[in-house]
């Protein structure tokens, strides 16, 4: 009987904590991504608050889009960095959260190996032909990215 009582109390505490967290989230409703906006939109009851959330979200995205249009070199640099990372492959950590039969939460972390992406290599070769005239070569970019990508953490 004690185990059932403890499980009931624990369940009640978890549900109260989830309820409090939902109330606090509803109060601030900061939508940074489309998924968080979608979740906040579905949980907000007031139509006026939902309209305000949509307006604020779209204004922030328009400001960000205008900034990116004013600084296209940032987009090009970030795209090249992502292509180099994908072309090299490497290791990444995958986290899985679960609950065991006793009701305890656990996290399982697995280190996975990503194979080099052939499409990224081909796109990098196409993109770096213009850079070769300036002195930046594909091999230099791979060498710089490879040094930081394969370092032990």
Please describe the topology of this protein.
Blueprint: H1 2-28, H2 34-43, H3 47-70, H4 72-88, E1 90-99, E2 105-114, H5 118-134, H6 138-149
Helix pairs in contact: 4-5, 4-6
Protein described:
- The structure is a single chain.
- 70% of the residues lie in helices and 13% in strands.
- With 153 residues, the protein is an alpha+beta fold.
- It has a two-stranded antiparallel sheet with strand order 1-2.
- It is flat, with a radius of gyration of 24 Å.
- The chain starts with a helix and ends with a helix.
Task: Give short descriptive properties of this protein.
153 residues, alpha+beta, two-stranded antiparallel ribbon, 6 helices, 70% helix
């Amino acid at each position: 009987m004690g185990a059932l009582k403890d499980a009931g109390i624990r369940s009640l505490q978890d549900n109260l904590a989830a309820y409090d967290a939902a109330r606090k989230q509803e109060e601030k409703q900061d939508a940074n991504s489309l998924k968080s906006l979608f979740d906040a939109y579905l949980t907000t009851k007031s139509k006026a608050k939902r309209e305000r959330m949509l307006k604020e979200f779209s204004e922030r995205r328009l400001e960000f889009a205008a900034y990116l249009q004013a600084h296209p070199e940032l987009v090009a640099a970030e795209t090249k960095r992502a292509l180099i990372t994908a072309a090299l492959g490497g290791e990444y950590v995958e986290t899985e959260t679960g609950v065991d039969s006793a009701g305890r939460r656990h996290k399982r972390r697995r280190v996975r190996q990503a194979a080099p992406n052939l499409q990224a290599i081909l796109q990098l070769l196409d993109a770096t032909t213009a850079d070769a005239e300036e002195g930046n070569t594909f091999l230099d970019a791979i060498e710089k990215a490879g040094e930081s990508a394969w370092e032990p953490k």
